[in-house]
Specification:
7 strands; seven-stranded mixed beta sheet; alpha/beta
């Protein structure tokens, strides 16, 4: 069984913000695979389905970004998911808009949702897809909670689409293939 977690903040006011890239990727993947994310539990919402004969869970914690660890911990514990079968998708200010960074492990890089997950799961060995939202020109909180516009929006939308393809590559082949195909920018 694999768990794919998109990080974000619940509520309409956050839906299209830079901080909700993780939610948007999981929603786009759910749409592409005709999966409903409609079960509520574990402080979040999820959908469960078969993909290439493997059980997959798409999960969106509803704890607000900085409290994501509790929700992820609860669903991992309930379904007995191995750490190597978890993939977290989230936004990252250190990456240019439109770029992706896939890593099999590492620190949170200051991203509070990922930091909380690392704390709850007691490991940095967690696969992740980071969607670039760029450095703020002003207050970081206003930046992540703001909506991208114009060319920046187009780049982030493109990265979200590519991230859904990276998830598919991870599920069909493996994470190493996904990293080699989708790290950086471009038209993978």
């Amino acid at each position: 069984m694999k768990l794919i977690v998109g990080l974000g903040n619940p509520g309409k006011e956050y839906a299209m913000t830079r901080h909700n890239c993780g939610f948007r990727v999981v929603d786009a993947f759910a749409d592409a695979t005709s999966v409903d994310i409609d079960k509520e539990d574990f402080h979040g919402v999820y959908g469960r389905f078969k993909f290439e004969d493997e059980d997959i869970i798409l999960f969106k914690p509803l704890t607000m970004m900085n409290g994501s660890g509790l929700a992820v911990y609860e669903i991992v514990k309930f379904f007995k998911i191995h750490r190597e079968d978890i993939l977290i998708v989230y936004d990252d200010m250190a990456i240019e808009p439109g770029n992706l960074r896939l890593r099999a492990s590492g620190s949170s890089g200051g991203q509070k949702g990922m930091e909380n997950i690392i704390k709850y799961l007691s490991t940095e060995n967690i696969k992740r897809i980071r969607v670039g939202i760029g450095e703020p020109k002003y207050d970081p909180i206003k930046h992540v909670l703001g909506e991208p516009r114009g060319e920046e929006k187009e780049k982030i939308d493109s990265a979200i689409e590519r991230a859904t393809k990276a998830i598919r590559e991870f599920l069909i082949n493996d994470f190493q293939n996904a990293m080699s195909k989708f790290n950086g920018g471009g038209n993978s």
